[in-house]
């Protein structure tokens, strides 16, 4: 579980995140949605300690994130970003194994874990000897997910992980990811600006606007009982692309 209490993060005069309180419940997928610049990525970076709050607290499983424990708490969280963030000079296998090697795992233990994860994320094992530039976008994200899951963290933080993929590959990975989240029962926080993706993944959704939370709840709740006109406008702006072709419209 991740809990934020009245967290504020400023960059100069800009409030990237302003007094946000939010709990990502254990075993659930919490989706952060909102327009570009609304503070989604900053919120995720605060959760994993890559950004430090100017005010308020972040706690992971009851432990307050601080400079002294950020490294050890980070090992309990896997992090995936849009472009994967893989090191270009390392093969898929070495990217996935990086942190485990750093922690002194034996090569046997690493091999066993890599094999397990290759099956879980449904990656062709031959791909692991290739470098990121030789992989497709979807394969790169599968390797990124392996890297994030290597230490079997309780928490997975994903920042627009499918944002750079073609629609068909994106759909495949959406299905696989949701299946993985359900099977592993991890606490997941997933950033997207796509309403369909939020509805697909989110047990709970938090809609952000200018560094603040406009509404939290189920996607159905946001649709049926919007807290403000902004909620309706945000959802409406992403109405189905083929809606205008519907008979009678
Ligand atoms: P989102 O992920 O919703 O697009 P971000 O969290 O990236 O939003 O950004 C929120 C606000 O904070 C934006 O106005 C952005 O310009 C600003 N911001 C984010 N990170 C930085 C940074 N490292 N330096 C300066 N401003 C930043």
Structure description:
The chain is an alpha/beta fold. It has a domain at 77-152. 36% of the residues lie in helices and 24% in strands. The protein has helices at 40-47, 70-74, 92-102, 107-120, 137-149, 167-184, 195-201, 219-224, 229-236, and strands spanning 2-11, 14-24, 29-33, 55-60, 63-64, 77-81, 155-159, 187-191, 204-209, 212-217. The strands form two sheets. Strands 6-7-8-3-9-10 form a six-stranded mixed β-sheet, sandwiched between helices. It has a four-stranded antiparallel β-sheet with strand order 2-1-4-5, covered by helices on one side. Helix 3 runs parallel beside helix 5 (137-149). The longest helix has 18 residues, at 167-184. The radius of gyration is 19 Å and the shape is globular. 37% of the residues are buried. The model has no long low-confidence stretch (mean pLDDT 93). Adenosine-5'-diphosphate binds at residues 11, 14, 16, 34, 36-42.
Overall pLDDT level? 93
Rg, rounded, reads 19 Å
User: What's the story with the biggest beta sheet?
Assistant: 6 strands, mixed
Q: What's the total count of β strands?
A: 10
Low-pLDDT sequence parts: none
The side-by-side strand order for the widest beta sheet comes to 6-7-8-3-9-10
SSE order: EEEHEEHEHHHEHEHEEHH
List bound small molecules.
adenosine-5'-diphosphate
Percent in strands: 15-25%
